[in-house]
Amino acid sequence: MGNSPDRITEGKGVQRMSRDQKRARWFGVLFLIxxxxxxxxxxxxxxxxxxxxxxxxxxxxxxxxxxxxxLELLLIIANIGTAVVIFPIxxxxxxxxxxxxxxxxxxxxTFILVGILCMLGIITLRQxxxxxxxxxxxxxxxxxxxxxxxxxxxxxxGWGNGLILGYLMYSSGLVPRRATWLxxxxxxLIIVSGTAVMFTGNLPSSTLHSLQAIVTIPEFAWELFLxxxxxxxxxxxxxxxxxxxxxxxxxPDATPHTQMPRPGSxxxx
Length: 269
Hints:
Structural class: mainly alpha
Order of helices and strands: HHHHHHHHH
Strand content: under 5%
């Protein structure tokens, strides 16, 4: 006895739903990893970024900087992972924006990677014989690292995690829509504040610096929400784009197919 077509289709839908929920939990875990890696890395870099010349001239703490670089390498993997695991799902909602999110993550990671190279360059300068130009080069590398942070996590993130991902989550219903407003509002705030800091030469006043920290809170809360919610609960099962609850996007050909008579069939009729 064979299974009915309806039962086979239902079984495939449940299997696809389960696969999507696994992706959702990986998505959440990877977002939590971005917090675990990025925040400590920034703290470990602090001494070098504030006093690059004295760091090169002094004893230095190379292992501390190397640990921060390793954390940021793991951050790059986690960032790209968040885009990769969710792309097969959100492309059902809007393939262009889904690809845009992947691209935004790649651009952000490119800035992070350039910043890592700058910090490793400072270590190399400190380990070499000190010369008259090492201090100037070290200061320049530290300044480039600051710019990569502003343009990557401080600007591109507003487009990627804020506007694009926020809209995809809002329109698809994968997470509660009220929470998506954190990204839809936080993204533009990061973009505006990052642009303002850029036009000050990345040397903002204390007031602008404090304001930038404040306007980052909605985006911070949005990404933390995604990490916690998706890790624990996954995506909402009633979201239409999930494999088990949405019809296939490919439409059958509506043109009726007429069976052509075989040669000689008229003579046999």
